[in-house]
Amino acid sequence: MSAVLLSLPLISIRSFMDNKLYNNEVAFELQTKKIDENRQGETLTVERPKQVDSNGKKYYIESYGCQMNFADSEVVASILANAGFDSTPEFLDADIILINTCSIRDNAEQRVRHRLQHLSAVKKKKKGALIGVLGCMAERLKEKFLEEEKIVDIVAGPDVYRMLPAMVEEAETGQKAVNVLLSREETYAEINPVRLNTNGVTAFISIMRGCDNMCAFCVVPFTRGRERSRDHRSILKEAQELYDNGYREVTLLGQNVDSYRFSEDPKLVGKKLVDAKYDEGVVNFAKLLEMVAQIAPDLRVRFSTSHPKDMTDDVLYTMAKYDNICNYIHLPLQSGSNRVLDIMNRTYTREWYKERIDAIKRILPEAAISTDIIAGFCTETEEEHLETMDIMEYAQYSMAYMFAYSERPGTVAAKKFTDDIPEETKKRRLTEIVALHRKHSLEHNLRDVGKTFEVLIEGTSHRSAEHLIGRNSQNKVIVFPKADLKPGMYTHVKVTDCTGGTLIGELA
Ligand code: SAH
Ligand code: SF4
Ligand code: F3S
Protein backbone atom coordinates (compact mmCIF):
# COMPACT_ATOMS: atom_id res chain seq x y z
CA MET A 1 0.00 0.00 0.00
CA SER A 2 1.61 3.23 -1.01
CA ALA A 3 1.40 6.16 1.34
CA VAL A 4 1.19 9.79 0.50
CA LEU A 5 2.94 12.34 2.58
CA LEU A 6 1.08 15.57 2.31
CA SER A 7 1.72 18.35 4.69
CA LEU A 8 0.77 21.94 4.49
CA PRO A 9 4.26 23.27 3.90
CA LEU A 10 4.70 21.03 0.86
CA ILE A 11 1.53 22.30 -0.62
CA SER A 12 2.54 25.82 0.28
CA ILE A 13 5.71 25.41 -1.71
CA ARG A 14 3.63 24.80 -4.76
CA SER A 15 1.09 27.51 -4.04
CA PHE A 16 3.77 30.10 -3.48
CA MET A 17 6.13 28.99 -6.23
CA ASP A 18 5.76 32.33 -7.94
CA ASN A 19 6.58 34.31 -4.91
CA LYS A 20 10.36 34.57 -5.17
CA LEU A 21 11.06 35.77 -1.67
CA TYR A 22 8.82 33.51 0.34
CA ASN A 23 9.13 30.31 -1.58
CA ASN A 24 12.39 29.52 0.12
CA GLU A 25 11.20 30.57 3.48
CA VAL A 26 8.52 27.93 3.19
CA ALA A 27 11.19 25.44 2.27
CA PHE A 28 13.15 26.67 5.25
CA GLU A 29 10.17 26.09 7.45
CA LEU A 30 10.28 22.45 6.45
CA GLN A 31 13.77 22.18 7.88
CA THR A 32 12.41 22.77 11.33
CA LYS A 33 9.88 20.00 11.21
CA LYS A 34 9.80 16.43 12.31
CA ILE A 35 10.06 14.40 9.16
CA ASP A 36 11.52 17.07 7.07
CA GLU A 37 11.12 16.49 3.35
CA ASN A 38 13.95 18.90 2.57
CA ARG A 39 16.44 16.97 4.65
CA GLN A 40 15.68 13.53 3.22
CA GLY A 41 18.89 12.26 1.65
CA GLU A 42 21.00 14.94 3.28
CA THR A 43 24.74 14.22 3.44
CA LEU A 44 27.13 15.16 6.21
CA THR A 45 30.79 16.07 6.23
CA VAL A 46 32.85 16.07 9.37
CA GLU A 47 36.36 16.87 10.43
CA ARG A 48 38.37 14.15 12.11
CA PRO A 49 39.73 15.24 15.54
CA LYS A 50 43.35 16.42 15.22
CA GLN A 51 44.66 13.91 17.75
CA VAL A 52 43.23 10.96 15.77
CA ASP A 53 45.35 9.58 12.91
CA SER A 54 43.66 9.02 9.59
CA ASN A 55 43.12 5.37 8.63
CA GLY A 56 43.12 6.44 4.99
CA LYS A 57 39.46 5.54 4.47
CA LYS A 58 36.70 7.86 3.43
CA TYR A 59 33.04 7.44 4.15
CA TYR A 60 29.92 9.09 2.82
CA ILE A 61 26.67 9.17 4.81
CA GLU A 62 23.14 10.06 3.76
CA SER A 63 20.11 10.17 6.07
CA TYR A 64 16.37 9.60 5.84
CA GLY A 65 13.48 9.66 8.30
CA CYS A 66 12.83 11.63 11.45
CA GLN A 67 14.98 14.02 13.46
CA MET A 68 16.08 11.18 15.69
CA ASN A 69 17.59 9.44 12.70
CA PHE A 70 19.42 12.60 11.67
CA ALA A 71 20.66 12.96 15.24
CA ASP A 72 21.89 9.35 15.04
CA SER A 73 23.86 10.15 11.90
CA GLU A 74 25.70 12.77 13.94
CA VAL A 75 26.54 10.04 16.48
CA VAL A 76 27.75 7.74 13.68
CA ALA A 77 29.89 10.53 12.22
CA SER A 78 31.43 11.09 15.63
CA ILE A 79 32.21 7.38 16.13
CA LEU A 80 33.78 7.08 12.67
CA ALA A 81 35.81 10.29 13.01
CA ASN A 82 37.24 9.02 16.29
CA ALA A 83 38.20 5.77 14.59
CA GLY A 84 40.23 7.65 11.97
CA PHE A 85 37.77 7.80 9.08
CA ASP A 86 37.46 10.93 6.97
CA SER A 87 34.16 12.00 5.49
CA THR A 88 33.45 13.00 1.92
CA PRO A 89 30.40 14.75 0.43
CA GLU A 90 30.91 12.79 -2.85
CA PHE A 91 29.74 9.21 -2.80
CA LEU A 92 31.84 8.33 -5.84
CA ASP A 93 34.87 9.32 -3.82
CA ALA A 94 34.00 7.10 -0.84
CA ASP A 95 35.37 3.75 0.35
CA ILE A 96 32.27 3.22 2.48
CA ILE A 97 28.81 4.52 1.66
CA LEU A 98 26.37 4.58 4.56
CA ILE A 99 22.69 5.20 4.30
CA ASN A 100 20.67 5.77 7.45
CA THR A 101 17.18 4.55 6.67
CA CYS A 102 13.53 4.92 7.72
CA SER A 103 10.70 2.36 7.69
CA ILE A 104 7.78 4.42 8.90
CA ARG A 105 5.76 4.18 5.66
CA ASP A 106 6.20 2.09 2.58
CA ASN A 107 7.25 5.09 0.48
CA ALA A 108 10.10 5.82 2.94
CA GLU A 109 11.51 2.36 2.21
CA GLN A 110 10.95 2.62 -1.53
CA ARG A 111 12.94 5.83 -1.58
CA VAL A 112 15.88 4.06 0.06
CA ARG A 113 15.73 1.16 -2.38
CA HIS A 114 15.87 3.52 -5.37
CA ARG A 115 18.72 5.36 -3.80
CA LEU A 116 20.68 2.12 -3.26
CA GLN A 117 20.52 1.39 -6.98
CA HIS A 118 21.97 4.77 -7.69
CA LEU A 119 24.70 4.47 -5.07
CA SER A 120 25.78 1.11 -6.40
CA ALA A 121 27.59 3.06 -9.16
CA VAL A 122 30.42 3.47 -6.69
CA LYS A 123 31.07 -0.26 -6.79
CA LYS A 124 31.60 -0.14 -10.53
CA LYS A 125 34.01 2.74 -10.16
CA LYS A 126 35.93 1.58 -7.13
CA LYS A 127 36.85 -2.01 -6.44
CA GLY A 128 36.35 -2.87 -2.78
CA ALA A 129 33.98 0.00 -2.00
CA LEU A 130 31.42 -0.99 0.63
CA ILE A 131 27.76 -0.12 1.06
CA GLY A 132 26.25 -0.10 4.56
CA VAL A 133 22.64 0.27 5.55
CA LEU A 134 21.91 1.73 9.00
CA GLY A 135 18.81 2.61 10.97
CA CYS A 136 15.24 1.44 11.00
CA MET A 137 15.05 -0.37 7.68
CA ALA A 138 18.22 -2.28 8.56
CA GLU A 139 16.62 -3.30 11.84
CA ARG A 140 13.33 -4.29 10.22
CA LEU A 141 14.79 -6.37 7.39
CA LYS A 142 17.91 -7.75 9.09
CA GLU A 143 19.71 -10.42 6.99
CA LYS A 144 16.90 -10.28 4.45
CA PHE A 145 18.37 -6.99 3.32
CA LEU A 146 21.40 -8.85 1.99
CA GLU A 147 19.22 -11.21 -0.03
CA GLU A 148 17.00 -8.48 -1.39
CA GLU A 149 19.70 -5.93 -2.17
CA LYS A 150 22.80 -7.76 -3.32
CA ILE A 151 24.95 -4.64 -3.29
CA VAL A 152 24.71 -4.23 0.48
CA ASP A 153 27.76 -5.28 2.56
CA ILE A 154 26.89 -3.99 6.03
CA VAL A 155 23.55 -4.02 7.88
CA ALA A 156 23.65 -2.19 11.22
CA GLY A 157 20.67 -1.58 13.50
CA PRO A 158 20.28 1.65 15.49
CA ASP A 159 21.82 0.31 18.71
CA VAL A 160 25.14 -1.01 17.33
CA TYR A 161 26.80 2.08 15.92
CA ARG A 162 29.75 1.72 18.27
CA MET A 163 30.53 -1.51 16.37
CA LEU A 164 30.64 0.17 12.95
CA PRO A 165 34.45 0.48 12.66
CA ALA A 166 34.75 -3.26 13.42
CA MET A 167 31.93 -4.07 11.02
CA VAL A 168 33.71 -2.17 8.25
CA GLU A 169 36.86 -4.24 8.93
CA GLU A 170 34.85 -7.44 8.77
CA ALA A 171 33.21 -6.41 5.49
CA GLU A 172 36.61 -5.56 4.03
CA THR A 173 37.55 -9.23 4.28
CA GLY A 174 34.73 -9.97 1.86
CA GLN A 175 32.26 -11.18 4.48
CA LYS A 176 28.92 -9.51 4.90
CA ALA A 177 28.60 -7.83 8.31
CA VAL A 178 25.23 -7.88 10.01
CA ASN A 179 24.47 -6.69 13.54
CA VAL A 180 20.92 -5.74 14.46
CA LEU A 181 20.97 -6.40 18.18
CA LEU A 182 18.73 -4.03 20.06
CA SER A 183 19.84 -2.89 23.46
CA ARG A 184 17.99 -2.02 26.64
CA GLU A 185 20.76 0.32 27.75
CA GLU A 186 22.41 2.01 24.78
CA THR A 187 21.75 5.75 24.69
CA TYR A 188 25.12 6.88 23.23
CA ALA A 189 25.10 9.12 26.28
CA GLU A 190 28.74 10.13 26.37
CA ILE A 191 29.29 10.29 22.61
CA ASN A 192 29.40 13.93 21.69
CA PRO A 193 27.58 14.09 18.38
CA VAL A 194 29.30 16.25 15.80
CA ARG A 195 26.91 18.98 14.65
CA LEU A 196 26.50 18.88 10.94
CA ASN A 197 25.01 21.14 8.30
CA THR A 198 24.22 23.39 11.16
CA ASN A 199 23.10 27.00 11.25
CA GLY A 200 25.10 27.34 14.49
CA VAL A 201 21.95 28.49 16.31
CA THR A 202 19.60 25.52 16.72
CA ALA A 203 20.44 21.90 17.58
CA PHE A 204 18.71 18.63 18.45
CA ILE A 205 19.49 16.54 21.52
CA SER A 206 18.27 12.95 21.81
CA ILE A 207 17.07 12.42 25.38
CA MET A 208 15.76 8.89 24.99
CA ARG A 209 15.59 6.01 22.52
CA GLY A 210 13.03 3.41 21.53
CA CYS A 211 9.32 3.28 22.27
CA ASP A 212 7.17 1.01 24.45
CA ASN A 213 3.81 2.18 23.20
CA MET A 214 2.91 -0.34 20.51
CA CYS A 215 0.51 1.83 18.52
CA ALA A 216 -1.01 -0.74 16.17
CA PHE A 217 0.08 0.98 12.94
CA CYS A 218 3.64 1.76 13.98
CA VAL A 219 6.91 0.03 13.17
CA VAL A 220 9.06 2.11 15.56
CA PRO A 221 8.85 -0.22 18.61
CA PHE A 222 10.24 -2.98 16.35
CA THR A 223 12.95 -0.92 14.71
CA ARG A 224 14.09 1.07 17.74
CA GLY A 225 13.47 -1.34 20.57
CA ARG A 226 12.58 -0.72 24.18
CA GLU A 227 12.25 2.74 25.55
CA ARG A 228 15.21 3.99 27.60
CA SER A 229 16.10 7.42 28.91
CA ARG A 230 19.51 8.99 28.71
CA ASP A 231 21.31 10.19 31.85
CA HIS A 232 20.15 13.76 32.46
CA ARG A 233 23.69 14.82 33.35
CA SER A 234 24.96 14.02 29.87
CA ILE A 235 21.95 15.83 28.35
CA LEU A 236 22.67 18.91 30.45
CA LYS A 237 26.36 18.78 29.59
CA GLU A 238 25.54 18.62 25.88
CA ALA A 239 23.07 21.51 26.12
CA GLN A 240 25.58 23.61 28.10
CA GLU A 241 28.31 22.96 25.52
CA LEU A 242 25.98 23.92 22.70
CA TYR A 243 25.14 27.14 24.53
CA ASP A 244 28.83 27.88 25.17
CA ASN A 245 29.45 27.39 21.44
CA GLY A 246 26.88 30.03 20.53
CA TYR A 247 23.77 27.87 20.03
CA ARG A 248 20.60 29.52 21.28
CA GLU A 249 17.99 26.78 20.87
CA VAL A 250 17.91 23.08 21.71
CA THR A 251 15.13 20.64 20.83
CA LEU A 252 14.89 17.62 23.15
CA LEU A 253 14.01 14.57 21.08
CA GLY A 254 12.21 11.34 21.88
CA GLN A 255 9.31 9.30 20.49
CA ASN A 256 7.40 10.06 23.67
CA VAL A 257 9.26 12.67 25.71
CA ASP A 258 6.61 12.71 28.44
CA SER A 259 7.69 9.28 29.59
CA TYR A 260 11.31 10.36 30.05
CA ARG A 261 12.50 8.97 33.40
CA PHE A 262 16.07 8.70 34.56
CA SER A 263 17.34 7.39 37.82
CA GLU A 264 20.52 5.72 38.94
CA ASP A 265 18.29 3.21 40.69
CA PRO A 266 16.92 1.04 37.86
CA LYS A 267 14.00 -0.08 40.08
CA LEU A 268 12.62 3.46 39.99
CA VAL A 269 12.86 3.90 36.24
CA GLY A 270 10.34 1.29 35.27
CA LYS A 271 7.54 3.00 37.15
CA LYS A 272 5.44 5.11 34.87
CA LEU A 273 3.53 6.90 37.59
CA VAL A 274 3.87 10.63 37.86
CA ASP A 275 2.80 10.47 41.44
CA ALA A 276 5.32 12.54 43.41
CA LYS A 277 6.17 9.76 45.83
CA TYR A 278 7.38 7.58 42.96
CA ASP A 279 9.31 10.49 41.50
CA GLU A 280 11.69 10.84 44.42
CA GLY A 281 15.15 10.12 43.12
CA VAL A 282 13.89 10.20 39.55
CA VAL A 283 14.30 12.90 36.92
CA ASN A 284 11.05 13.00 34.98
CA PHE A 285 10.41 15.08 31.87
CA ALA A 286 9.11 18.14 33.72
CA LYS A 287 12.24 18.17 35.87
CA LEU A 288 14.55 17.66 32.89
CA LEU A 289 12.85 20.48 31.01
CA GLU A 290 13.30 22.77 33.99
CA MET A 291 16.98 21.89 34.32
CA VAL A 292 17.66 22.57 30.65
CA ALA A 293 15.72 25.84 30.82
CA GLN A 294 17.85 26.94 33.77
CA ILE A 295 21.09 26.70 31.74
CA ALA A 296 20.54 30.25 30.46
CA PRO A 297 17.52 32.51 30.02
CA ASP A 298 18.48 33.11 26.38
CA LEU A 299 18.68 29.43 25.50
CA ARG A 300 15.38 28.42 23.95
CA VAL A 301 14.12 24.95 24.75
CA ARG A 302 11.77 22.92 22.54
CA PHE A 303 10.81 19.26 22.60
CA SER A 304 9.17 16.64 20.43
CA THR A 305 7.07 14.45 20.57
CA SER A 306 4.42 14.56 23.30
CA HIS A 307 1.97 11.68 23.69
CA PRO A 308 -1.57 12.75 24.66
CA LYS A 309 -1.86 9.92 27.19
CA ASP A 310 1.29 11.03 29.05
CA MET A 311 1.40 14.81 28.73
CA THR A 312 1.05 16.06 32.30
CA ASP A 313 -0.06 19.43 33.64
CA ASP A 314 3.28 19.40 35.42
CA VAL A 315 5.03 19.81 32.08
CA LEU A 316 2.59 22.57 31.07
CA TYR A 317 3.21 24.46 34.33
CA THR A 318 6.97 24.13 33.86
CA MET A 319 6.55 25.59 30.37
CA ALA A 320 4.52 28.46 31.79
CA LYS A 321 7.15 29.14 34.45
CA TYR A 322 10.07 29.63 32.02
CA ASP A 323 9.90 32.18 29.22
CA ASN A 324 12.63 30.34 27.34
CA ILE A 325 10.63 27.09 27.06
CA CYS A 326 8.84 27.64 23.77
CA ASN A 327 5.07 27.92 23.58
CA TYR A 328 4.68 25.09 21.17
CA ILE A 329 3.46 21.52 21.56
CA HIS A 330 3.36 18.74 19.01
CA LEU A 331 0.52 16.48 20.14
CA PRO A 332 -0.26 13.75 17.59
CA LEU A 333 -3.97 13.03 17.29
CA GLN A 334 -3.88 10.17 14.72
CA SER A 335 -7.68 9.86 14.76
CA GLY A 336 -10.64 11.64 16.33
CA SER A 337 -12.78 8.51 16.64
CA ASN A 338 -12.85 6.57 19.90
CA ARG A 339 -13.29 3.25 18.12
CA VAL A 340 -10.36 3.91 15.79
CA LEU A 341 -8.18 5.24 18.63
CA ASP A 342 -8.95 2.06 20.50
CA ILE A 343 -7.94 -0.31 17.71
CA MET A 344 -4.89 1.87 17.05
CA ASN A 345 -4.01 1.19 20.71
CA ARG A 346 -3.45 4.88 21.37
CA THR A 347 -4.96 4.40 24.89
CA TYR A 348 -6.78 7.76 24.99
CA THR A 349 -10.23 8.87 23.88
CA ARG A 350 -11.33 11.94 21.95
CA GLU A 351 -12.67 13.37 25.21
CA TRP A 352 -9.30 12.89 26.88
CA TYR A 353 -7.53 14.47 23.91
CA LYS A 354 -9.87 17.49 23.97
CA GLU A 355 -9.25 17.87 27.69
CA ARG A 356 -5.50 17.95 27.00
CA ILE A 357 -6.08 20.69 24.38
CA ASP A 358 -8.16 22.57 26.98
CA ALA A 359 -5.34 22.23 29.52
CA ILE A 360 -2.81 23.65 27.04
CA LYS A 361 -5.11 26.57 26.22
CA ARG A 362 -5.77 27.20 29.91
CA ILE A 363 -2.19 26.99 31.19
CA LEU A 364 -0.43 28.31 28.06
CA PRO A 365 -2.90 30.60 26.28
CA GLU A 366 -0.24 31.71 23.77
CA ALA A 367 0.80 28.20 22.74
CA ALA A 368 0.56 26.87 19.21
CA ILE A 369 -0.33 23.20 18.82
CA SER A 370 0.60 20.91 15.95
CA THR A 371 -0.30 17.30 15.24
CA ASP A 372 0.01 14.09 13.19
CA ILE A 373 -3.05 12.50 11.58
CA ILE A 374 -3.52 9.20 9.78
CA ALA A 375 -6.29 8.96 7.16
CA GLY A 376 -7.87 5.63 6.29
CA PHE A 377 -6.70 3.35 9.09
CA CYS A 378 -8.20 -0.16 8.88
CA THR A 379 -12.04 -0.19 9.03
CA GLU A 380 -12.32 3.61 9.40
CA THR A 381 -15.82 4.71 8.39
CA GLU A 382 -16.86 7.99 6.81
CA GLU A 383 -18.36 9.15 10.14
CA GLU A 384 -15.14 8.31 11.95
CA HIS A 385 -13.19 10.30 9.38
CA LEU A 386 -15.51 13.26 10.07
CA GLU A 387 -14.82 12.87 13.79
CA THR A 388 -11.14 13.43 13.05
CA MET A 389 -11.99 16.63 11.19
CA ASP A 390 -14.18 17.64 14.14
CA ILE A 391 -11.21 17.51 16.52
CA MET A 392 -9.18 19.50 14.00
CA GLU A 393 -11.83 22.23 14.26
CA TYR A 394 -11.60 22.04 18.03
CA ALA A 395 -7.81 22.18 18.26
CA GLN A 396 -7.12 24.69 15.43
CA TYR A 397 -3.65 23.33 14.72
CA SER A 398 -0.95 25.70 13.51
CA MET A 399 0.82 22.87 11.71
CA ALA A 400 0.07 19.23 10.87
CA TYR A 401 1.63 16.19 9.32
CA MET A 402 -1.01 14.21 7.54
CA PHE A 403 -0.59 10.72 6.13
CA ALA A 404 -2.55 8.01 4.37
CA TYR A 405 -2.31 4.78 6.36
CA SER A 406 0.47 2.53 5.10
CA GLU A 407 0.47 -1.03 6.38
CA ARG A 408 3.82 -2.05 7.87
CA PRO A 409 4.75 -5.73 8.03
CA GLY A 410 4.99 -7.16 11.52
CA THR A 411 2.95 -4.46 13.25
CA VAL A 412 -0.10 -5.26 15.37
CA ALA A 413 -2.38 -3.79 12.69
CA ALA A 414 -0.81 -5.90 9.95
CA LYS A 415 -1.41 -9.03 12.06
CA LYS A 416 -4.88 -8.25 13.37
CA PHE A 417 -6.67 -6.14 10.76
CA THR A 418 -7.15 -5.98 7.03
CA ASP A 419 -5.90 -2.88 5.26
CA ASP A 420 -9.38 -2.52 3.80
CA ILE A 421 -9.81 1.16 2.94
CA PRO A 422 -9.37 1.55 -0.83
CA GLU A 423 -6.44 3.72 -1.86
CA GLU A 424 -8.73 6.30 -3.54
CA THR A 425 -10.77 6.62 -0.34
CA LYS A 426 -7.64 7.10 1.75
CA LYS A 427 -6.41 9.74 -0.66
CA ARG A 428 -9.75 11.52 -0.74
CA ARG A 429 -9.98 11.58 3.06
CA LEU A 430 -6.40 12.76 3.26
CA THR A 431 -7.13 15.54 0.76
CA GLU A 432 -10.10 16.66 2.87
CA ILE A 433 -7.98 16.68 6.01
CA VAL A 434 -5.23 18.63 4.25
CA ALA A 435 -7.71 21.19 2.90
CA LEU A 436 -9.21 21.76 6.34
CA HIS A 437 -5.79 22.08 7.86
CA ARG A 438 -4.70 24.61 5.21
CA LYS A 439 -7.66 26.73 6.15
CA HIS A 440 -6.85 26.50 9.86
CA SER A 441 -3.17 27.27 9.49
CA LEU A 442 -3.87 30.30 7.29
CA GLU A 443 -6.43 31.53 9.85
CA HIS A 444 -3.87 30.87 12.58
CA ASN A 445 -1.32 33.00 10.76
CA LEU A 446 -3.85 35.73 9.99
CA ARG A 447 -4.58 36.01 13.71
CA ASP A 448 -0.88 36.86 14.20
CA VAL A 449 -0.94 39.82 11.81
CA GLY A 450 -0.50 42.99 13.86
CA LYS A 451 1.16 41.13 16.78
CA THR A 452 4.79 41.54 17.78
CA PHE A 453 6.91 38.48 18.55
CA GLU A 454 10.35 37.81 19.91
CA VAL A 455 12.25 36.05 17.13
CA LEU A 456 15.46 34.03 17.33
CA ILE A 457 17.31 34.74 14.08
CA GLU A 458 18.45 31.57 12.30
CA GLY A 459 19.85 32.86 9.03
CA THR A 460 19.62 34.99 5.95
CA SER A 461 16.83 34.45 3.46
CA HIS A 462 18.12 32.34 0.59
CA ARG A 463 16.28 34.47 -1.90
CA SER A 464 17.00 37.90 -0.59
CA ALA A 465 20.24 38.87 1.09
CA GLU A 466 18.31 41.79 2.53
CA HIS A 467 16.03 39.57 4.61
CA LEU A 468 16.52 37.41 7.66
CA ILE A 469 14.56 34.40 8.84
CA GLY A 470 13.88 33.14 12.31
CA ARG A 471 11.11 31.65 14.42
CA ASN A 472 8.93 32.85 17.21
CA SER A 473 8.24 30.86 20.34
CA GLN A 474 5.24 29.23 18.60
CA ASN A 475 7.62 27.72 16.03
CA LYS A 476 6.39 29.88 13.16
CA VAL A 477 8.86 31.07 10.57
CA ILE A 478 9.08 34.86 10.25
CA VAL A 479 10.80 36.75 7.42
CA PHE A 480 11.84 40.34 7.97
CA PRO A 481 14.31 42.98 6.71
CA LYS A 482 17.90 42.50 7.78
CA ALA A 483 19.03 45.74 9.46
CA ASP A 484 22.15 45.25 11.58
CA LEU A 485 21.34 41.82 12.98
CA LYS A 486 22.97 38.39 12.87
CA PRO A 487 21.96 34.72 13.32
CA GLY A 488 21.86 33.79 17.01
CA MET A 489 20.49 37.19 18.06
CA TYR A 490 17.00 37.83 19.36
CA THR A 491 14.87 40.64 17.99
CA HIS A 492 11.26 41.80 18.04
CA VAL A 493 9.29 41.60 14.84
CA LYS A 494 5.85 42.99 14.12
CA VAL A 495 3.87 40.79 11.74
CA THR A 496 2.48 42.74 8.80
CA ASP A 497 1.42 39.97 6.42
CA CYS A 498 1.42 36.19 6.05
CA THR A 499 1.09 33.19 3.76
CA GLY A 500 -0.25 29.80 4.84
CA GLY A 501 3.23 28.76 5.98
CA THR A 502 5.15 31.92 6.86
CA LEU A 503 4.74 35.19 8.74
CA ILE A 504 6.12 38.34 7.16
CA GLY A 505 7.12 41.25 9.36
CA GLU A 506 9.16 44.32 10.11
CA LEU A 507 11.42 45.13 13.04
CA ALA A 508 9.41 46.44 15.94
N1 SAH B 1 6.40 8.87 18.42
C1 SAH B 1 5.86 9.71 17.45
C2 SAH B 1 5.62 9.07 16.11
C3 SAH B 1 6.71 9.03 15.18
S1 SAH B 1 6.17 8.48 13.65
C4 SAH B 1 4.50 10.05 17.94
O1 SAH B 1 3.87 9.26 18.62
O2 SAH B 1 4.10 11.12 17.53
C5 SAH B 1 5.44 9.97 13.04
C6 SAH B 1 4.05 9.83 12.56
O3 SAH B 1 3.99 8.98 11.45
C7 SAH B 1 3.04 9.24 13.53
O4 SAH B 1 2.60 10.16 14.47
C8 SAH B 1 1.94 8.81 12.60
O5 SAH B 1 1.03 9.87 12.35
C9 SAH B 1 2.67 8.50 11.31
N2 SAH B 1 2.70 7.07 11.06
C10 SAH B 1 3.30 6.12 11.79
N3 SAH B 1 3.08 4.90 11.25
C11 SAH B 1 2.32 5.09 10.14
C12 SAH B 1 1.75 4.22 9.17
N4 SAH B 1 1.93 2.92 9.25
N5 SAH B 1 1.02 4.78 8.16
C13 SAH B 1 0.86 6.12 8.08
N6 SAH B 1 1.36 6.97 8.98
C14 SAH B 1 2.09 6.47 10.01
FE1 SF4 C 1 4.98 4.77 17.12
FE2 SF4 C 1 3.11 5.16 18.92
FE3 SF4 C 1 5.65 4.91 19.69
FE4 SF4 C 1 4.85 7.10 18.37
S1 SF4 C 1 4.17 6.46 20.38
S2 SF4 C 1 6.71 5.86 17.97
S3 SF4 C 1 3.33 6.29 16.98
S4 SF4 C 1 4.39 3.30 18.74
FE1 F3S D 1 12.33 7.70 12.65
FE2 F3S D 1 11.58 6.45 10.48
FE3 F3S D 1 12.82 5.14 12.33
S1 F3S D 1 10.45 7.98 11.52
S2 F3S D 1 12.38 6.16 14.23
S3 F3S D 1 13.65 6.82 11.12
S4 F3S D 1 11.11 4.42 11.16
The stretches of 5 or more residues where confidence is low (pLDDT under 50) are 1-33
Shape: globular
Structural class: alpha/beta
- Which architecture of the domain at 45-179 does the CATH hierarchy give at level 2? 3-Layer(aba) Sandwich
The kinds of small molecule bound in this structure are: S-adenosyl-L-homocysteine, iron/sulfur cluster, FE3-S4 cluster
Which CATH top level class of the domain at 45-179 fits? Alpha Beta
CATH superfamily of the domain at 45-179: Response regulator
SSE layout and pairing:
Elements: E1 5-7, H1 8-15, H2 20-31, E2 42-43, E3 58-63, H3 67-82, E4 86-87, E5 96-101, H4 106-119, H5 121-125, E6 130-135, H6 136-141, H7 144-148, E7 154-156, H8 164-172, E8 177-179, E9 202-206, E10 208-209, H9 220-224, E11 228-229, H10 232-244, E12 249-253, E13 261-262, H11 266-269, E14 283-284, H12 285-293, E15 300-304, H13 313-321, E16 328-330, H14 338-343, H15 350-363, E17 368-375, H16 382-395, E18 399-404, H17 412-416, H18 423-448, E19 452-460, E20 467-471, E21 477-481, E22 490-498, E23 503-507
Parallel strand pairs: 3-4, 3-5, 5-6, 6-7, 7-8, 9-12, 12-15, 16-17, 17-18, 21-23
Antiparallel strand pairs: 1-18, 2-3, 10-11, 13-14, 19-20, 19-22, 20-21, 22-23
Bound molecules: S-adenosyl-L-homocysteine, iron/sulfur cluster (SF4) and FE3-S4 cluster.
FE3-S4 cluster binds next to helix 3 and helix 9.
